[in-house]
Amino acid sequence: MKIGDITMKNPVVLAPMAGVCNPAFRLIAKEFGAGLVCAEMVSDKGILYENEKSLKMLYVDEREKPLSLQIFGGERESLVAAAKYVDKHTNADIIDINMGCPVPKITKCDAGAKWLLDPDKIYEMVAATVDAVQKPVTVKMRIGWDEDHIYAVKNAQAVERAGGAAVAVHGRTRVQMYEGTADWDIIGEVKKNVSIPVIGNGDISTPQEAKERLEKYGVDGVMIGRAALGNPWMLYRTVQYLQNGEIVPDPDAREKMNICMLHLDRLIEIKGENVAVREMRKHAAWYLKGLPKTGSVRNGVNQMTTRNDMNKLLFDYVDQLEMEESQQKIIS
Ligand SMILES: Cc1cc2nc3c(=O)[nH]c(=O)nc-3n(C[C@H](O)[C@H](O)[C@H](O)COP(=O)(O)O)c2cc1C
Question: DUS-like FMN-binding domain: which residues (predicted)?
C-alpha cells in the first residue's frame, strides 16, 4: 500500500485510539509488524494554543515510522494552522483528519463525525489542508451520521477531489457508536467509487477475517483497533497469515506479561512512573484477557501504584499458573 509517496511494507494498520496509541504502544505495534501505525487524535486548538499536553502528543520516535498523526477540529482556520504545525514541526509521515469521532464533546464543536453530514464542508476543509502542507493528508471517517444519512461514497469522493491521499472507513454510523456490527458492504462501495487507497475498518478480530475482508471487499489496507488492545500479537499474526498463510499460535502467559512490562517501561519513560502505572492498569487487564484464572490478578492490577509491584503481581500469577500446569501434566 502506498499513501502519497509513503510506502507501507504490508496492509496492516494499527487504528488510532485515544488513550492507547502513544509512542509506547505504537512502537510495540511497529515491532510486531504493523505496516502503518496511527497516533491518537490531537485537538487542533490544543496545538494552536501550544497546550503542553497536546504538543507532547506530537512526539514521534524515528523507529515508529511510517506513522500517521491525527488531528481533529471544526473550523477551517484552526485545522489548517494545526496541520501546518504538524507538517513543519513533527516527523510524522502522514497527517490524518478525524471525521469519525462520535462523542458529543467533539461533535458539538462541529468536529469529528459531524462532518459526515456535509460533503461540501469535507471538500473545503480537506482541500484547504492539502494546499497548506507538504505531507500527504488522509481522512478517517465513519460511513455516515445515522442510517438515514449514509454518505460514505459521496464523502470519500469529496476527500479524493480535494486531494486527500487515502481514506480509512469505519463501517459504523456515528449514532451506532460502537454498537451493532460494521457494514463492510458500504466500505466495499467506497472502494469501488474512488481511486485513492481505501483502508477498511471495523470488527476485525482474527487474521482470517482480515484476509477475507481484503479479498472480498478489495480494500487496500485493514485497520485493526480493539482486537490489538493488550494484544499486539493480533498484528503480528495477521501479517504472518497474509504473508505466508501461517497461523502463529497465541502467546503464553509469560510472553504476554513480558510485553506488558515492556509496554509499562516505555510508558514510564514518557509519562513517569506515577501516571504510567495508573494508565497501565487498563492495558494490563487487556493483556490478561483470554488467560486462565485471572480473577484475583485483575483485581490486584487496579490497586497497583508502582512498577515493581505491578511486575511482581503479574509474574507471581504466571509462576503460579505454570506450576499448576506442570502439576497437571504430571498427574495426567
Ligand atoms: C479506546 C478507543 C479510542 C479511539 N480513539 C480514536 C481516535 O483517537 N481517533 C479515531 O479516528 N478513532 C478512534 N477510535 C476508533 C478506532 O480507531 C476504530 O475506528 C474503531 O475502534 C473500530 O475498529 P475496531 O473494530 O477494529 O476496534 C477509538 C476506538 C477506541 C476503542
Answer: 14-313
